[in-house]
Amino acid sequence: MPERHINALLDELEHRARQVAKEREVTLKIDHDDLVRLHALAEVYGLSVDDVSATLLHRILLEVEEKLPYRAGTRIIRVEDDEPVYEDIGPTPRYLEAKRRFEKECA
Question: Angle between the 49-67 and 32-45 helix axes, to the nearest 10 degrees?
C-alpha cells in the first residue's frame, strides 16, 4: 500500500478517534414516523440508527446556529467603516452564553 494511502488512513483513524472521544450517549423521545425514517435511512446507507441520528442532529444544529437571527438593539458597540454596529438583542447572545456555560459544565 503506498505511503500516502497509509497516511490518509492514519489521519482518518485519528479523526474518528477524536470524534468518538467527544461522543456522549443520550436518550430522547421521538415521533414514531421519525423513527421509521431513521431506520430507513440507516438501512439505505448501511449505518446504525445512532450514526444516522447523530449525523443529522449535528448538521441541523450547525445550520440552526448559522440561522439564529441578529436583532439590532439601540446601543452602538463599535464602528466599522464609519457605520455603527448595534448590539444584538436577539437570541444569539443568550445562546452563545448558554453554550459557553454548558461547554464548561460538560467538559
Answer: 110
pLDDT tens for the chain, residues 1 to 107: 678 899 999 999 999 899 888 888 999 999 999 999 999 999 999 999 999 999 999 999 999 999 999 999 999 999 999 999 999 999 999 999 999 999 999 87
Q: Which residues contact 86 (CB under 8 A, 6 or more apart)?
A: 72, 73, 74, 75, 76, 77
Alpha helices for 1-107 (secondary structure H): 3-22, 32-45, 49-67, 91-105
Compute the distance between CA of residue 103 and CA of residue 54 in angstroms, rounded to an integer: 18
3-class secondary-structure state, position 79? strand
Spatial separation of the C-alpha atoms in residues 72 and 87, rounded to whole Å = 6
Q: What residues does each domain of the chain span? A: 70-107
